[in-house]
Amino acid sequence: MSFLSPPAGNLDLGVNIDHVATLRNARGVAYPDPLQAALAAEAAGADAITLHLREDRRHIRDTDVHALRPLLHTRMNLECALTPEILAIACTVRPQDVCLVPEKRQELTTEGGLEVAGQLNQVKTACSQLAGAGIRVSLFLDPDPVQIHAARETLAPVIELHTGRYASACNEAERQAELERIARAAELGASLGLKVNAGHGLHYSNVQPIAALQDITELNIGHAIVAHALFVGWENAVHRVAGVMERTGGRFAAKVLGPDELAKYHARAARSAVRGLAFLATRFAAKEAFSKAIGLGMHWPMTWRALQTLNEASGRPVVVALGALADWLTTQRIHAHVTLSDERDYALAFVVAEQDKTKEIRRLVHPLTGGIILFARNFQSRAQLLALTEQIREVRSDLLITVDHEGGRVQRFKTDGFTHLPAMRGLGKLWEQDVLLATRAATAVGYILALELRASQIDFSFTPTLDLDYGHSKVIGDRAFHHDLCVITLLAKSLSHGLALAGLANCGKHFPGHGFVEADSHYAMAVDTRTLAALFHDAQPYRWLDVSLAAVMPAHIIYPAVDARPAGFSKIWLQNILREQLGFTGAILSDDLSMEGARAIGNVVKSAQAALDAGCDMVLVCNRPQEAERVLAELRYTPSAASASRIKRLAARGEPISWHELEQHPQYLAAKALLVELAL
């Protein structure tokens, strides 16, 4: 199709075939065949085929799902509930999309959206399981901001807004109020980087206002099409819905163009429809080319409207980023150049993206640089992450590549196949029910964590957390295993065993304990005024774990009963207590020196010098590249042979296996299955 032809199907249509199966099952015969209906819907222009495999199999059956998957040329969107049986079927069939919906046996049809906020961990687990099978996950939600924000936390990339109340509204005022509610919800979802779909109860008379909402990208309609098909035929019914959806004016332009682009589009379209369409085509092509050039695709922070192609006074096209995308490009030091070609029947855009890596390379080759720590901002996909770590290796093969990757809310990589690991408190709760099962689960968590990092060429993770769960520290909170020292020690030992099985060393933190203080040392100077006996009580896991700890990270907390300096800058804590009294022989790694808790010593150079003088083998400077530059330029330090040896022992052991091999690895798959079984 010529790009300059009027765009058709700007809004995707998913056709639900459930009620074709309902008619079939009503007589217990083989017709009407939902598979035939699906293929006919495809031929009529449907963009996706939706089907709901309910627990009671009231319409769609297992055989329908298995038979239809290889026949479709469009997407299969499988709706299912949060039940192990149905989720397992989904992971076996592997449709392109799975929409998680609520389900009640007594309901005639789905009533309301999924409760995500109230069962967040269960939904997260299901999303992780499905994403691990290569399935895109959608959550069927009421247009409720609480549920939409919760959906964002699950890492599901898509939400589908329930339009049932809008469709069943008794009067125009009620319908308009529901439409506005859906519009606000769609705008919120899009602003959070979610793809927004909608559906339920929509038909020819009420679909157009929903289709006109610029943040909605797909509608799912079933019952109305099946009912109308009884009179006009299946293909005609699908065509009619698609036609109504297309009568939404300049919806496509409003969806993809930034504010300045949209103004220019309307000005050109007012003079000539062809000129307007040519402008839209070139800008659309530029956004597609740009998204690929920077390696993100259409994934947050890259969105259609966040990237504009404008013209300088000379007429030369330039790319202008907005909002979060502009911030990301600045952080990544990416500059792009665009060339547009406005041909008669098609539009071309060429984008060259350049990244200034001079400063990074200079930091990496500096003799005082011993390692690098990665964050979520360094991750867009597994392939990109692996390319990044391989590039680092090419510059310095001896650098320790690390990440703060514990599980729960402190997990830097959560998508594109990475297992969503539980918070450590979940393992502690499991301990209270079954001790042996909890130790198995902890080992599985460590094993999965380590294998996935090793497959990404990462050497080391700052885990486990050995702090006590006193119940009032927000920064520690569910990162702690338990409130009992013995439980903490044994679960940490089990998790460390899992790490070791995959070749990763461990790091106990935050010595001597961060669990009691309420202040967050990232943002405040935290002080623990308890007695020496109370502090030594919290530090017992370090004594009991002994030689099984490869590294320890001290807390940026002042303990006046011992020293006026924070523990990470105190010779008393690091030399007299940790090394001499507790007999620790591993590496001591400072916490981030850009944290507020490190400011008691002075600027970042003074903090680094003080930490090393106190006994740290390596210091961390995170989040502030300019301060890392300053430390490298001004620090005067030569590591001892013993210190260098301790750091060297943190490197990963053995040859890592690739992601492809990992996906076939029986022990890895068994560990993941255990976490799914336990709903962790």
From TrEMBL:
One of its GO terms (biological process) is pyridoxine biosynthetic process. It catalyses: Hydrolysis of terminal, non-reducing alpha-D-galactose residues in alpha-D-galactosides, including galactose oligosaccharides, galactomannans and galactolipids. The keyword Lipoprotein does not apply. Residues 355-637 form the Glycoside hydrolase family 3 N-terminal domain. The keyword Cytoplasm applies. HAMAP family: AcpS, NagZ, PdxJ. This is alpha-galactosidase. It comes from Linnemannia gamsii.
